[in-house]
Give the backbone structure.
Amino acid sequence: MGIRPQLRKALTASIPSPIGGWNARDSVSNMPPQDAVEMINFFPTPTDVTLRKGYKKRATNITGTVETLMNYAGPTGQKLFAIAGTQIYDVSGTGNGTVVKTGLTNAQWQYVNISTPGGNFLVCCNGVDTPLVYDGTTWANISVTGVTSSTFINVNLFKNRLYFTQKNTLSCWYLPVNSIGGAASELNFGSVARNGGFLQAMATWTLDAGQGADDYAVFVTNMGEIIVYNGTDPSSALTWALKGVWQMGQTFNRKCFFKWGGDLLLLTQDGLVPMSSALQSSRLDPRVNLTDKIYFAVSQAATLYYDNFGWQIQYFASENMLILNIPVNNGTEQYVMHTITQSWARFTGIEAKCWEVNSKKGMFFGSVGFVGEFYGDLSDGGNNITASVQQAYSYFDARGQQKRFTMVRPIFLTDNGLPTILSNISVDFETNPNVGSLTFNPNATNIGIWDTSKWDQSYWGGAYLLSKDWESVTGIGYAGGLFLQTASQGIDVHWTSTDFVMETGSVI
């Protein structure tokens, strides 16, 4: 009597959506299944992965590229200004921008707000023009003596004093307390900065050194030397003391500092480094970097786009989002971290040269000929938002066993209709398998209208729709990972998990 061949059995498995985010550090053969080899325009949250929102265009009458956005924050209101070409525009409203200042040499400015007994002011400089001040009504030149103020390229507020970094020198100039002009005094770091170079920027770091919280003055050179002082009056050795000099990776842009909560972030070739831990161990242990999980991607970007203007760190509090703007050649990208999970993603399609927060109206970015209101719409200026992800590969608890994948079912929750979703299986670490042509027609979204649409023929808005359609796939290998693309506009998209159907073969 012959032995009947054993029939193959279909096995099923379910993997959560990649809430661990983009992983550009670990080997693709050894990633946690909730990570992603690539994640573009999806944003990982603690509970699911969402399609990023888009932007609305504002102030579309701007001539040239907006390279600086500045937010004036007075006691009774805020104003948003955009600098493009040789002009400053007031873009506080929802309509076109209004030119409020002309005759500038370039549009790459740094700024700070300061409040004095004389009022509330926005002070800015660019290393070429005379620094400007805005008092809530008018713009004027700052009057500074003792130095050529047009060489000021960066400005910081520290313990009621304005400090200006002088372009291409190791000098920083400070003004009297509560002043926006007057006689400037020099701080020269030539005898402190052992590696030379020039002073890149200054920032204020709030630190508790065991005697209560205090502010420290932090200076960084382009060679990556961090110089920290504590005190109030740099002219007095009794009240101004050097706390230390540390060596980090080189810094390559003026907007390398960002005040974030009780910490200070510094952007270097090592990545995005929190000062609270960086000065102790980051060069020895890069895991303290916020960008640790995408370390290789940030390092590559820093090498390739070192000289490009547009590097910036910005915090979007309402969306728990930390944005690192990357000025790639012929455009920009954003590496974006969820601040709760520290999971990363990569955003494309947002041509942002600069970012700024207006606390009453949200997050804005400057682009070519307009200012964009980020997360202000479910489309990119009226165009589809397209996204793709390659989830980490899984052996499905059978490392040495070959598998034939036959079906996948990504599970989505959406409102206001269904986006185009195309998926396939990647096996044994291949990337970007063919999934077909990705298109989406927003006019075809069949949303029901009460007393007009017919039952069972339309989707009803107001509640989330569950999408869980099986798709046939073909792939034979030891490990598999979902490759997915989507396109939509006007739809809020949430990806929760994915089901797989496969047949297992013999151990080879």
Summary: The helical segments are 275-281, 295-304. The chain has a mean pLDDT of 90. The two ends are 28 Å apart (CA to CA). The first strand starts at residue 10 and ends at 16.
